[in-house]
Amino acid sequence: MNKKLLVLGAHALAVALLSSRAVAAPDLTAAHKLYQANCAQCHGKDLEGAAGPNLADATWLHGQPTKANLVRVIGKGVVDKGMPAWDKQLSSAQLNQLAEYLLPANAAARKAAANNGTAPAAAPAAPANGLAALKLPKGFRISVYADKVEGARELAVTESGLVFVGSTKAGKVYALVDANKDGVAEKVVTVAEGLNNPNGVALLNGALYVGEISRIIKFDDIEKTYASKPAYKVIKNDLPTETWHGAKYIKAGPDGKLYVPIGAPCNVCDKEDEAYSKIWRMNPDGSNWELYARGVRNTVGFTWHPVTKELWFTDNGRDEMGENMPSCELNVAPKAGMHFGFPYCHGGVLPDPQFGKGKSCEAFVPPVAALGPHVAPLGLAFYTGSQFPEQYRNQLLVAEHGSWNRSNKIGYQVRLITLYGNKLVSDTAFIDGFLQNEEVSGRPVDIAVMPDGSILVSDDHAHKVYRVTYQR
After folding, report:
1. What's the pLDDT score for residue 127?
2. pLDDT > 90? residue 32
3. DSSP summary character for residue 245
4. Do residues 449 and 163 lie in contact, with contact meaning Cβ atoms separated by under 8 Å?
5. Is 13 in a helix, a strand, or coil?
6. What is the pLDDT of residue 45?
């Protein structure tokens, strides 16, 4: 009997030990992504500390690192120290995920989550050029729609499927022509050349509008005239001449107006009383120039929700605050007159060390999503086609141009932002692989939905426009 009890006791002890190990090593993959998206800009990507305190050591400033206390601190914030109350932006489940992630006992699980899904060091590198390196969700295929489109930037597509592309590098505007509708443009036609950084192209009332550094020009009846070097009219010619954040991403809104951003002419500066750091709009003839949104450092991409007609835009965060801060942003502006924080507050949570003094981040509109530090989000589009699976309908695709000033590059991909109303549900990779072992093969710039439900992605590094299709 005693032997039997000993055996049973040993068995119970073994089960208990196995159970405790399972509890001590939870899967923190989702929590890791949540931390990197919302917390790393202040506390460091490895909890090492930055603007906020170190979370990896044994010294805690605000109570003990119990799960209950961590949920409380994250949720309510530490306002006097500049930490916002995250219970206004994150759900109860997300707060619990972050608290679990930060527990000292879960250090090994955090490391495993950070390494989850990465390729082994000995694995051969994927080709740095071509499409073989690119990864998409199951069922999707990527191909080259047009090659030799030098410096391909913003895209605009007519109802018939004619594609226009701006190019700051070449000083040109192109038309991509797929006459036989086989999914490959057989012609790249130069519509105009000798322009001053013509980044932006937009279609409105049958005309093509082009945004240069200091003016907006218009080509009438563009589908009939694009191949014959058409003449243009100058619609507005009094925009600032600064080239720093001077490229114009322009687009026609559902209100029939043309929207034009003017970026900050600096890394960070206070131009609140001037035209900079704002999104403007005007009538198609250039009249009624009016302010729509302020506190926008440099947006190079915006679009409107197909149902609510609300304006969504990306914004590039400032530099010179370290590799891991601040985060670039995804914002929504449902009405005119909203202020999104620049230069006083970055990423919705981080006061600027120079211009944030005496300001509260709570005074400004927070981003819907923190996209990551220096990822350079540019063009974006709601998927409105019927070719992709239903779960993609009315969800956002965002082109990340990629970092230029980090020791370890990030970005260089197209992200899928899944929303419920105006709240972030998930942020996942849609096209990945332009960055392989620190080697860059492409830099996504803009996204457009084609009439057949496929999408196009421009790439100013590889001088290509890609086409993404889905086959059930």
Report:
1. 38
2. no
3. T
4. no
5. helix
6. 67
Q: Give the H/E segment covering residue 32.
A: helix 29-38
Distance CA 68, CA 76 (A): 12
Domains and CATH numbers, the chain: 2-115 (1.10.760.10), 140-470 (2.120.10.30)
**How many angstroms separate the CA atoms of 416 and 418, rounded?**
6
Q: Where are the alpha helices (DSSP H) in 201-338?
A: 222-225
Residue-wise pLDDT for 81-101, tens only, equals 546 666 756 788 888 888 888
Q: What is the pLDDT of residue 292?
A: 98
DSSP assignment string, 134-146:
-B--TTEEEEEEE
- Paired with 209 in beta bridges are 202, 218
* 378-432 residue pLDDT tens: 999 999 999 999 999 999 999 999 999 898 999 999 999 999 999 999 999 999 9
Question: 């060390």: which residue's tokens?
Answer: 353
**CA 1 to CA 467: how far, in whole Å?**
74
Per-residue DSSP letter, 230: -
Q: Which long-range contacts (CB under 8 A, 24 or more apart) does 36-40 make?
A: 36/372, 37/327, 37/369, 37/370, 37/371, 37/372, 37/427, 38/86, 38/89, 38/90, 38/98, 38/370, 39/98, 40/324, 40/325, 40/373
For the CA atoms of 357, 362, 366, 370, what is the dihedral angle to 10 degrees? 60
Is the preceding omega at residue 326 within 30 degrees of 0, hence cis? Answer: yes
Q: Contact at 8 Å (CB) between 462 and 432? A: no
pLDDT for position 84: 63
pLDDT digits (tens, 9 = 90+) for 439-455: 999 999 999 999 999 99
What global pTM score does this model have? Answer: 0.75
Question: Cα torsion at 377, 379, 383, 387 (round to 10°)?
Answer: -110
Output the pLDDT for position 71. Answer: 84
Take residue 274 and report the two structure tokens written for it. Answer: 């001037």
